[in-house]
Amino acid sequence: MNLHSLRIFTTVASIRSVTEAARVLSISQPAVTIQIRNLEKETGLKLIKAEGRGIKLTKEGQFLFKHAERLFDMEKDIEYKLRQLENGKQENLRIASTYLPANFLLPLWLAKLKKDSPLVKVELYSGNSNEVIEQLLHYKADIAFVVNEDWNQSDLNLHHLVDIDFWFIVPIGHKYDGKEILLSDLVQEPFLLREEGSSTREILFSLCRVHGVTPPRVGLQFHGLNESIRSVIAGYGVMLAPSLAIQEHLNRKEVGRVKVKGVDIKRPVYLCSRKEDKELSPNIKNFLDLVKKYY
User: Fold this and answer.
1) By 3-state DSSP, what share of the chain in percent is helix, strand and coil, each rounded to 5?
2) Which ranges carry the HTH lysR-type domain (predicted)?
């Protein structure tokens, strides 16, 4: 496949405009069009079609764009690491993690790593599950830590680390504080939900499907676990949260816990790497060995 044509196609696909892509690439619009047509001829597939003043990707075009993006992200990653080697620097360790590992597990591991290898530069990105996996697959991170269960990620190697309990919490003095009730009763209350893509949100909705219960109405939605917990402490809403994040609040009696009949939620923490990375860097190997000592 002609990589020059593929690079031009990727620019057009990301901008959704042949005219704007030509301006960004500093070439003529006809030259862009010719390269797209050559790529379509080479692949035997229709990749784009006109839509208003811009373009729209076909199903085949979307597939090619997704994988071409990763290819060129890999190229940037190689260039980045070669510059480090050229300058005589140790390779950085770039980690992507969902909120729970980033706040309650990684601090201990990274403190140990820095004591053992003080010259290693560590970059930590935190986001929801979808964002973290995208960081890993697009070479913005070397490894990732996520809390999830139902994976359909053929591109990843998964190493199970530990299972974490998830509990329902309510404001102190709530009518269900300290009680054991049915899930169908609990979902009648206003809930605090995380944003779409959050593993905690998916756990709750999956639980409702399994038990044949209508999902709760959204009282408030937050892009962050801590903000949600603070709202419960302030006196509003029910939420599902990981035990690691709320144990101290329960001990200080800032929130109450509700037990739900027939429900015991545990979710695994996975360490993820790209399946194509056959040989991991020494920094990553050392860190993985350190983490595995805890489990």
Assistant:
1) 45, 25, 30
2) 1-58
Spatial distance between the Cα atoms of 216 and 218, rounded to a whole number of angstroms: 6
Distance CA 212, CA 293 (A): 41
Residue 75 within any structural domain of the chain: no
Q: What CATH number did the domain enclosing 222 receive? A: 3.40.190.290
Domain enclosing residue 219, as ranges: 165-266
Question: Do residues 5 and 39 lie in contact, with contact meaning Cβ atoms separated by under 8 Å?
Answer: yes
Residue bearing tokens 């500093």: 26
CATH code, domain carrying 116: 3.40.190.10
Q: pLDDT grade, residue 76 (50/70/90)?
A: confident
206: its two tokens: 């999956």
| Span 144-199, pLDDT tens digits | 999 875 666 677 888 888 899 999 999 999 999 999 999 999 999 999 887 777 77
pLDDT band at 114 (very low <50, low <70, confident <90, very high): confident
Q: Is the pTM value of this prediction over 0.70?
A: no
Amino acid at 263: V
Question: Which residue stretches of the chain are H helix?
Answer: 3-15, 18-25, 29-43, 59-86, 99-104, 106-116, 129-137, 183-186, 199-210, 225-234, 243-251, 282-292
pLDDT confidence of 243, banded at 50, 70, 90? very high
Per DSSP, 238 falls in state B
Give 14 or 293, the one with higher predicted confidence.
14
**Dihedral (CA of 130, 133, 139, 140) sign:** positive
**Residue 240 sits in the same domain as residue 224:** yes
- CB-based contact 225:253 (threshold 8 Å): no
Task: Let me know whether 94 and 154 are in one domain.
Answer: yes
81 within a domain of the structure (yes/no): no
